[in-house]
Design goal:
The chain is an alpha+beta fold. The protein is built from three helices and four strands, in the order ββαββαα.
Amino acid sequence: MKMNVESFNLDHTKVIAPYVRVADRKIGENGDLIIKYDVRFKQPNKEHMEMASLHSLEHLVAELIRNHADYIVDWSPMGCQTGFYLTVLNHDNFDKILDVLEDTMKDVLVATEVPASNEVQCGWAASHTLEGAQGLAREFLAKRDEWSIVFK
């Protein structure tokens, strides 16, 4: 039975992480194009990101990716802790998205702090690790050549 949520219709046993894929495309009533990407870091049901590392990578990428593209709407973590969703507006160039992700991960590697990781700007400020986020970025970048290969 087809479900309403796109990722619930994805056979998670047939994908190979890391990868980047288009998870959804919508045209708004004013003609705007919204594209949601599944940016998978870890192999579903085999491994996951530790929460403090995921949380810090979320903060870093959410802040840094906007230095590379003005069409970013959102960067949000998956509850399963295996990846993130990247949502963009009126931009339909997959190769450019991969380049933006690569450039952003390189920025993460040279960051000296996790942005907004304090009690005023974050809802769980105690749960951060710059080193953990950089480790995730390093692993993801190491397999850059494989990002567009989704299925076994």
